[in-house]
Design brief:
about 425 residues; alpha+beta; Aminopeptidase; Alpha-Beta Plaits; 2 domains; 4-stranded antiparallel beta sheet; about 25% strand; elongated
Length: about 425
């Protein structure tokens, strides 16, 4: 807990950092005033790009067409070193004045929706309706608008800025694009992900997760004549019950969710297989791994117990626990220059900043010790990850102005 003296700012490095960030942000904000005005003038074009990219289906693992569209936009803007890597990430660079490690700005290409769920964006009053219109049609559009403003506005920064449209951010994509990019890109000064809508949130705490699919196999048989053989579904139910009773720490906040389960052939059959999937989350990687170890132990105990009770001479149950998702955790302190810069820029835009926790592409650089945050692209949105997802462009241009100022400031300061 801070002392009263620290709260007043006397000798407090957090307060000193905030003051410095505020001064730098104010200078950049003032310098970019003409470009911030252009963001308002070009607001319709940003929304048009948001609509266009949203109408290109991009289920996780099928981002090629949307990636090609983004690459064409990078070329139209006039960025350099446009390329596609082995993971399908689409990259381009706004050159800096020095060879210092660059700033990375990323926005994910993929959506949670199947290809046939994507159609034309509809309008209802001041709302745009379409799956993915906010997550991440808005993020991609604002990344492109930021790149365009820097290029055509002649914005000069000490560090280069690399713009990266990533693949596999959602669900079972498991941050595939970000993992590949940050593992192979060399030295990076900082990373800023643009994801979804809003202009107040600054995600600086990355929720890590380990996702497992537990499968229990047995001989199966008839529910009457073969009764007494070990039942995979019974063992699965015991394991789920024990897992749900595990003690979870409140600090750091931690969750364990059994999210899917299944098994069995018919109501009068002993199942040959039962399975369930588990999502373990925390901002602390060791806590996640401790829970994973506990879960694996619970499954093994449930299977041993079921085997001990089976009819003599019948086959034993076997089990596997397959890792199907691994998102690293990480935290960037509120006093870090990048967080302070984001808070200062957000405040200058007339919005009260809100520090937040989430799982985004920024998880990856944070886990590698690279300063990273995630911000929204402005405007309002709702019903994310549903077919009723919507976006309203209220103060949408402020989201572009915020991203532009933050990226420019970061490329100068870090």
């Amino acid at each position: 807990m801070e002392s009263p003296q620290a709260k007043k700012g006397a000798g407090n490095p957090v307060a000193a950092t905030a003051t410095e960030a505020g001064r730098d942000a104010a200078e950049v904000f003032a310098r970019l005033a003409p470009l911030r005005a252009l963001a308002v003038q070009h607001d319709d074009s940003t929304v048009a790009a948001q609509i266009a990219v949203t109408e290109i289906p991009a289920p996780t693992g099928e981002e090629t067409a949307r990636g090609e569209w983004v690459a064409n936009q990078f070329a139209r803007i006039g960025l350099h070193a446009i390329d596609v890597d082995a993971a399908g990430n689409v990259m381009a660079t706004h050159r800096g004045r020095t060879d210092a490690p660059p700033i990375v700005v990323c926005a994910h290409l993929d959506t949670v929706f199947p290809r046939d769920a994507i159609g034309a964006v509809k309008r209802e009053g001041n709302r745009l309706l379409a799956p993915g219109i906010g997550d991440n049609g808005r993020g991609l559009a604002v990344m492109l608008a930021t790149a365009s403003a820097m290029k055509h506005g002649g914005v000069s920064t000490a560090r280069a800025v690399r713009f990266v449209a990533t693949t596999g951010e959602e669900g079972h994509g498991d941050l595939r694009g970000a993992k590949h990019y940050f593992a192979s890109c060399g030295d990076i000064a900082a990373a800023i992900a643009i994801d979804g809508t809003g202009e107040e949130r600054i995600v600086h705490r990355a929720v890590g997760s380990r996702r497992l699919r537990v499968t229990i196999d047995g001989p199966g048989g008839h529910s009457w004549s073969d009764y007494g053989v070990a039942n995979p579904l019974h063992a699965s139910a015991v394991a789920i019950s024990l897992a749900s009773a595990l003690h979870l720490p409140e600090n750091p906040q931690t969750t364990l969710t059994v999210s899917r389960t299944g098994g069995g052939l018919s109501v009068n059959s002993i199942p040959q297989r039962a399975w369930f999937e588990v999502d373990i989350r925390s901002v602390d990687d060791p806590t996640v791994r401790q829970l994973e170890t506990a879960l694996r132990g619970i499954v093994e105990s449930a299977v041993i117990e079921a085997n001990a009770r089976r009819r003599a001479g019948t086959p034993a149950l076997t089990c596997t626990a397959e890792l199907i998702g691994d998102r690293p955790a990480g935290v960037l302190g509120a006093d870090a220059p990048l967080v302070q810069a984001a808070m200062a820029v957000t405040g200058l835009g007339g919005v009260i900043p809100e520090l937040a926790t989430a799982s985004t592409d920024a998880n990856v650089p944070l886990s590698m010790g690279i300063p990273a945050i995630t911000i929204g692209g402005g405007g309002n949105g709702g019903d994310v990850h549903t077919l009723g997802e919507w976006y309203s462009n209220e103060h949408g241009a402020r989201g572009v102005a915020r991203a532009l100022a933050l990226v420019t400031l970061s490329a100068e300061r870090h």
